[in-house]
Amino acid sequence: MKKVHEELAREISDNLPKASDLPHLPYLQACVKETLRLHPSAPLLLPRRASVSCEVMNYTIPKDSQIWVNAWAIGRDPMNWEDPLVFKPERFLNSAVDFKGNNLEFIPFGAGRRICPGLPMAARLLPLILASLTHFFDWSLPNGTTPDELDMNDKFGVTLQKEQPLLIILKFENDQEKLFIFIDFHTYNIYVSCC
């Protein structure tokens, strides 16, 4: 978060992040991509049907078989990603790999005719939301917890969630007030406290 915060301070100063700022925020964009690589919101993409029998990697796929694409596993494949389980946004800096369905090693929104119709909106909103939250709040974990102590295991379903609740504290401070926001990403409860 520190690198994102520094990039925002350097590129947009105290201004509110705008869509026109996004091309000037490569590290922020890389963080969004790396998050989607490790934790795609839909781990299994929409199923496909084999229109003909074929062979893929020595497996015979009979005609009319239902095929599920596991975006979660693809994003963690060591044949495509160095240190696949490590959160390393730098892997996307100076890289043409994107999530628009052209790079099959990174398809959190799918590919082809069944690509997620919300991709253009998500591609614009996710970095703007992250930019706003990072730029205007100091982030911390409760009770002296360090990032290395977080349980980052996933709970599988139609959508991907964290297995253990994540509680973060966002602190906004100016000359007049302090605002603490506690967000529980498991229950989606938000607690606000002014001091």
TrEMBL record:
* Domain of life per record: Eukaryota
Question: Could you give a GO molecular-function term held by this entry?
Answer: oxidoreductase activity, acting on paired donors, with incorporation or reduction of molecular oxygen
Keyword field contains Nuclease: no
> What are the protein's UniProt keywords?
Heme, Iron, Metal-binding, Monooxygenase, Oxidoreductase
| Needed cofactors | heme
Which Gene3D superfamilies does the entry link to?
Answer: Cytochrome P450 (1.10.630.10)
Q: Which residues bind heme?
A: 116
InterPro entries per the UniProt record, alphabetical:
Cyt_P450, Cyt_P450_CS, Cyt_P450_E_grp-I, Cyt_P450_sf
Give the family from UniProt.
Belongs to the cytochrome P450 family.
Name of this protein: (S)-N-methylcoclaurine 3'-hydroxylase isozyme 1
- Species assigned in the record: Vitis vinifera (Grape)
Top-down, what is the taxonomic lineage of the species of origin? Eukaryota, Viridiplantae, Streptophyta, Embryophyta, Tracheophyta
Q: Which gene encodes it?
A: CYP80B3_3
